[in-house]
Amino acid sequence: GVLQNNKQQLTITANTQLTNAAGFSNLIIATKNGHPVRLGEVTRVVDSVQTTTTASWYDGTRAIIMAVQRQPDANTVDVVDKVKAMLPSFQDQMPAAAQIKLLNDRSTSIRQAVDDVQFTLLLTIALVVMVIFVFLRRVTATIIPAVAVPISLIATLGAMFLFGFSIDNISLMGLTLAVGLVVDDAIVMLENIFRHMEEDGLSAFDASLKGAREIGFTIISISISLVAVFIPVLLMGGVIGRIFNEFAVVVTVAILASMFVSLTLTPMLCSRLLSVTKADREAHSAGRHDIVTRIYDWLLSFCLRHTFLIFLVFITTAAASVWVIQVSPKGFFPQEDIGQISVTTMARQDISFDAMAKLQGQVASVFSKSPYVDHVAWSAGSGNNALNQGQLFVQLKGKDQRPNIEKVLADLRRQLAGVPGIETYMQPVQNLRLGSRSSASAYQLVVQGLDTKQTDVWAQKLNDAMAADHTKFTDVTSDLQNNALQASLVIDRDKAAQLGIDTDTLRSALYGGFGTDQVSTIFGSADSYEVITELDPKIEWSPEHMLAIQMRTSSGTLVPLGAFARVDRTAGALTINQLGQLPAVTISYNLPQGVSLGDTVTRIDQLKEQIGMPTAISTSFAGTAKTFQDSLANQGLLIGGAILTIYIVLGMLYESFIHPLTILTGLPSAVLGAVVALRFAGMDLSVIAVIGILMLIGIVKKNGIMMVDVALELRRQGMSAKESIHKACLMRFRPIMMTTLAALMGTFPIALGTGAS
């Protein structure tokens, strides 16, 4: 309050606020024989922390681990740079014995991936330009289509800026793959102009006018139909749709920009820079072709003579492509190796904090001694998990100092198997992690039912069946913890009533001794601190010790708790989990090397039938596994939608129902080759592979458009169907080979998979 008089006012303060343990120790709690009894004489008063059952270590040294999370719309690299800039000022404010060390920098993998993609992008441009030079053998002719690459990419980057896209792995992958596509239109335009200069002896200017006028519709058809491939991707919903929406926009803008460049800039450059030597014209007029063209001519003639045989081959490849897609192992995203491992440990359900910390230290020691590991941080205690669970974060050495991540995990699993009393589950940290449910392993299966006991029983049976199948599953565990020891206090109510001990007195005494009974609060300038009472935690408490606790009766006498109660050891739930208001058990697992996620989904259905799981118990996938299921259901619709969209667009352009089918006849053999290549490479038919198949569809129809366009023009000039397609194939053989090899070189660096992750 305030003291006021006629001359002044005074603010009233008092020294009633105790600020530390020493102040509370001096409190007088009683007077005996005229002598005060202070709190510190009958109790042990200490300054402590709020939670004593959690602790963290970094490379064997006690530590406080703090995580900095970015906001959803913030840039990871920018946030990391700003945090790093602030660390020196924080270090200056700390004691000399304390150090700040960086444990996990998520921007490192992002920077490495971006640098790698940038190098891949430059390498791709160089390979594409090399392809053009090999075919045309002229520097000036090589420069003309090569100019389309930077201009198209600059236009794409401008569009990305307008759309608010950032430079990330998805957009850079789109830019890299687009390099092999943006030169296609320029190559087709250049080759057609070059052909007129060779065949007709036209000047560069006249050939540019005639060639551009002749090939303009073809380029528009190629570009618009290629954009049509990505329309289903743009319309995809869910998590996958949001991820690849940016990719589809980037590729679409790059293709449209290249179309504009090819229809305007490329003919202009050809009219100024392109030249044909007399020897080239003589060789062309004499009908001299290279050996590759002659071999192609012979094969083409053979196919045109045996149309029924080729039709049977077409039917066979179509059926084979559908069959191979059905039997191919389905995956989600390829596993990344960013040099980080997330580890979850689990011990027996009745373990104490000190015992858990000791076991956790043994596990951390295995990681620390591994030649593959750079740093290890670990924690033990409650936190967000049960007391018998711990977490480790392992930072691996660079890729040049260790084998691949699969070999590292296999070696560590073998070494960790020698640590008794604790189970260890590892999963490599991924840049893209889907789902909000945390688990010990990467993939999650949720078991639910109305009856908790039945849910627990069948979840355990399914967990055991999955754990026994080592060919399909590894690191199988669940969050079911219903076998923890409990000390159940059984009260003899009659005896308690005779002694005058009511329920509230008993509850208050037990909570004050073994709970967190807050009796006061210390208010500081920046925070407040709880003052709690408890029985001395240094005593080795047991049920027998608890029964010896003295309880005050209504008459004021003290009697032991064991006089009217007993302790029974029972099993109870350590954690209780629910999902959607129903009891739930989450089973998590990892994949053995060479096993696809789709195989495990099928195997789980088989195991449910084998154990006879009732219909009252339901299962559903969560996190990454659920997103995989959703994407798997949409894969057929995505590919079918892309083909249908192209057919409609081509039908509108050619005003025909037949010509689009003719253009797309090469699709089955191309898809068959792509899927077979995946099988030989030991890869799954993942979401990334499906996106690749979509791009393959665009390449296939591009080749068909170039041939059909010329064949239709020759038909209008009076040629028969066989003669027109034969001549059209030979005329378009060179540009088809050039564009195909350019697209191949555009994906070759990515296919090598030598990047950061």
Give me a quick take on this structure.
Helices cover 55% and strands 15% of the residues.
Question: How would you characterize this protein structure?
Answer:
Among the domains are: 2-42, no CATH class; 104-288, Multidrug efflux transporter AcrB transmembrane fold (Up-down Bundle), CATH 1.20.1640; 339-428, Multidrug efflux transporter AcrB pore domain (Alpha-Beta Plaits), CATH 3.30.70; 484-516 and 540-572, Multidrug efflux transporter AcrB TolC docking domain, DN and DC subdomains (2-Layer Sandwich). The protein is α+β, with helices and mostly antiparallel strands. It is elongated, with a radius of gyration of 37 Å. Strands 6-5-8-9-7-10 form a six-stranded antiparallel β-sheet, with helices on one face. Strands 11, 12, 19, 20 and 21 form a five-stranded antiparallel β-sheet that branches. Helix 4 (106-136) runs antiparallel to helix 5 and helix 20 (624-654) runs parallel beside helix 23. Helices cover 55% and strands 15% of the residues. The mean pLDDT is 83. It contains 25 helices and 21 strands.
